[in-house]
Amino acid sequence: MKRKLLLFFIALIVIVVFVFGVSAIVQDWSWDDAQMKQIESVLDEVSATRLNSGESDVDFGDSSQINVLLLGLDARQEDEDPHCDAIHMFTLDLVDWDMVITTVPRGTYAYIPRQLEETEYYLANACSYEGLEYGIDQIEKVVGVQADYVATVNFSQTLGILRLFDLPTTETLQWLRHRQSYQIGEPQRAHNQAVFIKDMIVDHLHKFESGFTLPMQYLLYSFVDTDMDFAVVRALLEGYIDASIDENPDNIKLVMRPYYETVDYHYDPETVEGQIEDWVDFLRPYLSSEDLSELSLDEIQGSIIAYLSDSLTSGESVEHIIEGKLWLQIEDGDTREELHYLAVEVYVGQLEGPDAIIDTLSLYILEKEALELDDWAQRGKELLVNMVE
What we know:
By secondary structure, this protein is α/β, with parallel strands linked by helices. The chain folds into two domains: 31-279, Aminopeptidase (3-Layer(aba) Sandwich), CATH 3.40.630.190; 295-388, no CATH class. Helix content is 52%, strand content 10%. The chain contains 15 helices and six strands. The protein has helices spanning 2-21, 33-51, 123-130, 132-143, 155-164, 169-177, 186-204, 214-222, 230-242, 272-283, 297-312, 319-324, 333-350, 354-370, 374-388, and strands at 65-74, 83-93, 99-103, 149-153, 225-226, 252-256. It has a six-stranded mixed beta sheet with strand order 5-4-1-2-3-6, with helices on both faces. It is globular, with a radius of gyration of 22 Å. It starts with a helix and ends with a helix.
């Protein structure tokens, strides 16, 4: 009886965390007259931040626009200094409700203070060798505007996002990362990513009006590391939905800096597997084993599972696993959920203080409930009971 009562209070805690941790941050507005107030608030906040920013050779741009830099970080397992593998600056106009996506190829030249080989002075390495902040400064110089917000996703987080949209994970990521069969290589790959992003907006924005509930939206938000509040994300999302930008794709313009002549290739989940097989067959005679791994998907997955299993039973800190969401690299759903639960179980055992434990487990439970994984949500509740007893 006592345990059932405790479970009831745990469920209540989870509801409270959700209501005040997610819903309350967007409850100050509803999307009519308050829409403009919220957008004005966003622009005022951005304006104040710009005024208080340090000196820079690069401007922020128009006062009706905000700039969001999206970086795909090439980080797996224990990588601490990832490369900036994908670079896209979104300039969002909050008056006309259009957007410009400015893409920078990762191989673009960048000054790096340390002594390197001549071929290593490029933007991806600026992030890795000199740190993310330095890399962002170099990117802003190429794009020509400063970022108001920065959002980063690593290898694992990208797989999680693709899975939420019911896209094939490994094949989609291979398509987005492929460059060898293009004559101009990296610039075409970078443009492919921008086309993919635009297509995702056009094809999937409507889901946020119905299929993607608030918990699912917050789950998607949690898969991105950003300094942008969820309330700001929601305001921007609602603004573009209201403007029907998905029905006006010409209002999403793609720009590349420096300029390269590229072709618009559109990703097709129905044909991507065959396309990748054709690429591999074509490239096999020309590439070394370092460029074209002959490991099977099962072998790669086995290596990742072994790494996670060893790390979670080593007695060492698992914070890097939690922060990197490394379990999202596992394709098999049952194995992925087992390792996620084990990672959370070990992690909360390493935390100090009930608040951190409750926050971690509440978010875990909310994620599983949003994904309708009720058994795992229940296990999370029971773990929370055991931790607070």
